[in-house]
Design brief:
Strand order of the largest sheet: 2-3-1-4-5-6
Shape: globular
Structural class: alpha/beta
CATH class: Alpha Beta
Largest sheet: 6 strands, mixed
Radius of gyration: 16 Å
CATH architecture: 3-Layer(aba) Sandwich
Helix content: 25-40%
Strand content: 15-25%
Distance between the termini: 39 Å
CATH superfamily: P-loop containing nucleotide triphosphate hydrolases
CATH topology: Rossmann fold
Mean pLDDT: 85
Order of helices and strands: EHEEHEHEHHEH
Number of helices: 6
Number of domains: 1
Amino acid sequence: MTTIKCVVVGDSDVGKTCLIMTQANGTFPASPPRVVDGYAMTVFVGDTPYSLGFWDTASPEEYDPLRHLMYPQSDVFLFSFDVTNAASLGNIENKWYPEISHHCPSVPFILVGTKSDLRAGKGQKVPRDVKLVSCSKGEDLARRLGAVAYMECSALRQEGVAQLFEEAVRVATQPGLQEPKRRCSRICTIL
């Protein structure tokens, strides 16, 4: 069975851990842990099984010097932002894209808008002063940064979650994307 490493990045509180735990456990977590962790599960694309390893990253600044240690051998990244938090979308362009581009310039990524249930009015009420990030803004940023896809999902409602991870597997296994030059690697130089 092919193993795929999927690293999820984005600001704190955008829903990365809930997204991963919902996919891994089949239910929305009552109280998600605030730790960096890894999860694994089998994902089927068509009739083919893949072992998908999810890597949940820590976002606070104090982890900046260490976070890149999770990136080697990544097959696909999920750049996550909260559709109710425009600043988290801005940080995709200003923080997360530059960081990943520096460490893993050729690894494909998907731009992911989380908490889409709040956009549709199916979840909690969004305060009036909160301006939702439009789908077109997400699609535009995905195009400008070179994302292979833009997707939105709701871990709370379990909408679009399975499709997101199936797409991550497809992206990671497309012909030409599995060549060594397309994988994130770490080079050791001894001086």
